[in-house]
């Protein structure tokens, strides 16, 4: 087993029988430090890790930490990629989830050309470790493992505006066009090309001006049930 934290002690607290006093040991107030933490000297290097720590809300992370080991998932990868790109780092969410640690991720940014490849992705993609774990659990009602968000949008928009906006979002975020297949007892992750007709079918317009909170929650539950990952 590899420890995640190190506690520096002058001496172990002992019982009268000469054994380590585990109760006193737990009460000792020590400053926890990351096993891999170290001071960075390069300003860009430091800025990179400051963004990572901000997204994870954890100031004890180091470049040697693994994205998944510190609580990373697909949602955090998108958020981290967005924050990094806003600050001049050319790193995608896919690269984040494929990296062994944050140092490898930082090196990928250095190796990138100045122009970031924004071409849409489609075809077969290898499953990430978290996805492999998910399918191995054989959960009941597998399609219902999703999230929802509610946004308040100001301004005048019609259905055509939303279709145009959603199509552009669908083009940029490959995960929206992704689905899974089970082939020879193994799951495969596939991404479709962007298609205007498909994007139109994925949008549902509901007049909720007369809805109360119960109506809105019921609408959300029904939308959750319509999602099919295959």
Automatic annotation (TrEMBL):
It comes from Staphylococcus lugdunensis. Residues 39-113 form the Carrier domain. InterPro entries: ACP-like_sf, AMP-bd_C_sf, CAT-like_dom_sf, Condensation_dom, PP-bd_ACP, Ppantetheine_attach_site. Keywords: Phosphopantetheine, Phosphoprotein. Gene3D superfamilies: 3.30.300.30, ACP-like (1.10.1200.10), Chloramphenicol acetyltransferase-like domain (3.30.559.10). It holds the Pfam family PP-binding. GO terms for biological process: lipid biosynthetic process. It comes from the Bacteria. Its cofactor is pantetheine 4'-phosphate. This is Carrier domain-containing protein.
């Amino acid at each position: 087993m590899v420890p995640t934290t190190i506690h520096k002690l002058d001496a172990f607290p002992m019982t009268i029988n000469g054994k380590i006093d585990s109760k006193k040991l737990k009460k000792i107030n020590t400053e926890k430090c990351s096993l891999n933490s170290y001071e960075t000297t390069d300003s860009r290097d430091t800025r990179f890790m400051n963004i990572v720590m901000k997204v994870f809300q954890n100031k004890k992370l180091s470049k040697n930490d693994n994205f998944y080991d510190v609580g990373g998932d697909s949602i955090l990868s998108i958020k981290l990629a967005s924050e990094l790109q806003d600050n001049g780092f050319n790193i995608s969410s896919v690269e984040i989830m494929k990296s062994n640690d944050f140092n490898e991720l930082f090196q990928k940014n250095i190796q990138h050309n100045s122009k970031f490849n924004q071409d849409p992705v489609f075809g077969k993609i290898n499953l990430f470790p978290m996805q492999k774990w998910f399918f191995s659990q054989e959960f009941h009602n597998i399609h219902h493992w999703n999230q929802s968000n509610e946004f308040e949008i100001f301004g005048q928009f019609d259905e055509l505006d939303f279709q145009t906006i959603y199509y552009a979002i669908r083009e940029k975020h490959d995960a929206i066009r992704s689905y899974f297949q089970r082939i020879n007892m193994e799951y495969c992750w596939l991404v479709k090309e962007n298609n205007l007709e498909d994007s139109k079918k994925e949008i549902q317009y509901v007049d909720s001006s007369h809805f109360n909170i119960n109506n809105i929650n019921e609408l959300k539950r029904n939308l959750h049930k319509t999602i099919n990952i295959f």
